[in-house]
Amino acid sequence: MQGEEFGQAAEAIRNGDLDGAGLDKPERLLLEFAGTIAKAAYRVTDEQVQGLRDVGWTDEQVAEGAYVAALFSMFVRLADTFDIEPPAVYEPTGIPAAAVRRD
């Protein structure tokens, strides 16, 4: 999602607002799956994976989504461990709401 035509959707996703992103069902379910992995991977269910298959994702695509979500989660945890924040130049409008720490 790059370019002005996707600006509103990209901003909504950046802030964790999947409802405001206007996503199609397959993309929405994949992002929800990634969110489950990021928040509590043990909560991924067979039904959730089957739901991804039912909307057209292949097992290889589901696995790749899981790998990316897990790897990203690892990077976030390492950044949190070492208190690393992105430079302001990368976040000109501030840290996204979805990334704000909720201690």
Characterise the protein shown here:
This protein has 103 residues and is an all-alpha fold. The protein has one domain: AhpD-like (Up-down Bundle). It is built from four helices and no strands. It has helices at residues 7-14, 25-40, 46-54, 59-81. It is globular and about 40 Å long. The mean pLDDT is 88.
In the CATH hierarchy, the architecture is: Up-down Bundle
Large-scale geometry: globular
Q: Strand portion, in percent?
A: under 5%
Summed up, the domain count is 1
Radius of gyration: 15 Å
Helix content: 40-55%
Regions with little confidence, pLDDT below 50 for 5+ residues: none
- In angstroms, what separates the terminal alpha carbons? 31 Å
In DSSP terms (H or I, runs of 4 or more residues), the helix count works out at 4
CATH topology: AhpD-like
Overall number of strands: 0
Report the CATH C-level class: Mainly Alpha
- Give helix and strand order, one letter per element, not per position: HHHH
Structural class of the helix and strand makeup? mainly alpha
Largest beta sheet, briefly?
none
Mean pLDDT: 88
Main attributes?
single chain; 103 residues; AhpD-like
Brief sketch in words of this structure:
This protein has 103 residues and is mainly α.
Annotate the secondary structure layout.
Elements: H1 7-14, H2 25-40, H3 46-54, H4 59-81
Helix pairs in contact: 2-3, 2-4
